[in-house]
Amino acid sequence: MESFKPEGHERRQATCEGWTINVTSYRLRDRYYCKIDNNDPGATISRGQGETREAAEEEALRKATSRLALTRRIQSTREVLSTMQQSVERLSSELAELERISQQAGQSDPELPSIPRND
Fold this sequence. Notes:
The chain is an alpha+beta fold and 119 residues long.
């Protein structure tokens, strides 16, 4: 039975899209394999393989870059949406206060038109 013992195991840290990542690569028979995981908690981000270590790492890094960039965009979009939601809530409160003041003024001054509400 043929043995499948990994050879040339290398592990290093790098930075990708602002995250610290671990790049692990090794040779198994005539192929090189690479796994990229985030430093903490160590979840696999991507894998790659190729005829050379460089090819395997390049494939894995390309996938990791794409995935981590998407993660960064999602985080950024969530932050923007949260800020917009807070602004909408603040504006809604201000509008409600203006409508309340307008209705009070309209009750005391019959010359002022009332503002219809869309409830």
